[in-house]
Amino acid sequence: MSGEDDYDVVVVGGGPGGYAAALYGASAGLRIALVEGGTVGGTCLNRGCIPAKALLHTAEVYRTATRAADFGVITDGTFTTDWARVAKRTTGIVDKLVGGLTGLIKKRKVELVTGHARLTDSGAVLVDGAQLRGRAVILATGSAPRTIPGFEFEDERIVSSDHSTRSSSLPDRVAVIGGGVIGSEFASMFTDIGVQTTLLEALPGGVLPTGPEPELAQTLRRALLGRGTTIHAGVKVNPPEKSSSGIVLGFQGNGESVKIEVDQVLVAVGRGPRSEDMGLADAGVRVTDKGFIDVDTATMATSRPGVYAVGDVVDTCGLAHIAYAEAIVAIKAILGERPLPIDYARIPWVVYTHPEVAWAGYTEAGAKAAGYDVVVHKHKFAGNGRAMIIGDTDGMVKVVAQRDGPILGVHIVGPWASELLAESYLAVNWQALPEEVGAFIHPHPSLSEAVGETMLALTGRSLHG
Ligand SMILES: Cc1cc2nc3c(=O)[nH]c(=O)nc-3n(C[C@H](O)[C@H](O)[C@H](O)COP(=O)(O)OP(=O)(O)OC[C@H]3O[C@@H](n4cnc5c(N)ncnc54)[C@H](O)[C@@H]3O)c2cc1C
């Protein structure tokens, strides 16, 4: 690396936003430098999406094993988890993906530069004393776990998802603070694996209090309660106190004041942007009062010409696939093309709990509030043959459509909702009519029939729905 290096684009941050910008830009013939201060893959590969879903899958295997007899599979004796082995498997998956990504970066001739990057007021990127100059710069520095006063992260006791995704041991008793996506996923995983789990959430409902169709959150809440999660909603948690046998956590709400003892507290109250110590103010890159880099989402351009920002460091959705999409928008804008803007109201959302929750587009209340005359149909998985075969019938598909008009939103809670959403996402974004999707043939027996049946029923005629 020389101080005079010249690139089309210098990308700062090698997580999903940054590596997607580098790979997509390189595939369009741009000369790219990618600066990463830690490990490529960022939060998602190293301590987010991938390890979290690997742990959730272990929980699914465990849950299925506990019910093996229901399927006629008789096991003699008890079984347990070996969390060191679980962690080794997770690390194996992460390492393979990081290795594959590193190879791809090399193959596309992206120059990978290791070190902490800062923007200078001239618009160059400074890494360990060397200056990288690009026609454009993309900032993709991501986010880090937030905490609450009194809950400073500390060894195995007060932890963030960074710890829980990669730990080789399990607590016996855990309190998860925050019932959002990350908190709910961990509560689901811990519960299934046999950890005594208490979920504490400040908002009413307790589980996924913002975001999905309330019926989806209620289904998940019921399922978690049924499997043994203790949920306290609408509570305010006091700072933890150490005891000889664990951590005492007090909380108030709903007219009660409760104290519980746990071995570990997982704080999952959201993530904050990593925009500090990057020279943004001097470089003229505007940051919001919450620390997010201010962008025009039509192009992902910041307030400084030639500098773009994507992913968790901008105030959009905090999802890896949105970081990918924003990276493509930024590269297209740099190439002088007219990128198709992301329709943030219709993006795909997935929560990988058990049951899974997935949705795209308007909720019923959201569509009504936006002034639509809506029609709604719901189809439960209870009557679906494939759901019975896999022994997983809890949940439903709910479709919200404009009366005599297109599909506005699809909401799924149930088995493999994450995978089922793809078809519905396309339908919502193509603004398809229910009768168009209902006319498509869904294989039998399949979980996807529940989607087809819901669409068909919206035409006024139906098979099983
Ligand atoms: C437990 C958990 C589970 C998740 N599950 C999902 C999921 O299932 N699906 C989903 O879509 N999303 C999920 N997410 C969110 C997802 O991980 C993020 O949205 C995604 O990683 C954002 O990508 P990014 O590139 O913006 O930032 P990051 O992935 O955070 O990457 C930023 C990178 O920039 C580097 N960096 C920062 N500052 C500098 C600097 N100054 N110089 C050089 N390098 C720097 C960092 O080291 C890091 O590698 C999850 C997150 C967590 C924590």
From TrEMBL:
Gene3D superfamilies assigned: 3.30.390.30, FAD/NAD(P)-binding domain (3.50.50.60)
Residues of the active site: 444
Enzyme Commission no: 1.8.1.4
InterPro entries xrefs: Class-I_Pyr_Nuc-Dis_Oxidored (IPR050151), FAD/NAD-bd_sf (IPR036188), FAD/NAD-binding_dom (IPR023753), FAD/NAD-linked_Rdtase_dimer_sf (IPR016156), Lipoamide_DH (IPR006258), Pyr_nuc-diS_OxRdtase (IPR001100), Pyr_nucl-diS_OxRdtase_dimer (IPR004099), Pyr_OxRdtase_I_AS (IPR012999)
Cystine crosslinks: 44-49
Organism domain of life: Bacteria
SUPFAM superfamilies listed in its UniProt record: FAD/NAD(P)-binding domain, FAD/NAD-linked reductases, dimerisation (C-terminal) domain
Reaction catalysis annotation: N(6)-[(R)-dihydrolipoyl]-L-lysyl-[protein] + NAD(+) = N(6)-[(R)-lipoyl]-L-lysyl-[protein] + NADH + H(+)
GO cellular component, one term: cytoplasm
A Pfam family that the UniProt record links to this protein: Pyr_redox_dim
Cofactor field: FAD
Domain Pyridine nucleotide-disulphide oxidoreductase dimerisation per the UniProt entry, residue ranges: 347-453
Subcellular location as annotated: Cytoplasm
Recorded GO MF terms: dihydrolipoyl dehydrogenase (NADH) activity; flavin adenine dinucleotide binding
Binding residue positions for FAD: 53, 141-143, 312
UniProt entry keywords in alphabetical sequence: Cytoplasm, Disulfide bond, FAD, Flavoprotein, NAD, Nucleotide-binding, Oxidoreductase, Redox-active center
Cofactor, how bound (note): Binds 1 FAD per subunit.
Every FAD/NAD(P)-binding domain range: 7-327
NAD listed as a keyword: yes
Protein residues bound to NAD(+): 178-185, 201, 270
Annotated family: Belongs to the class-I pyridine nucleotide-disulfide oxidoreductase family.
Name under which the protein is recorded: Dihydrolipoyl dehydrogenase
Organism field: Mycobacterium helveticum
Protein's gene: lpdA
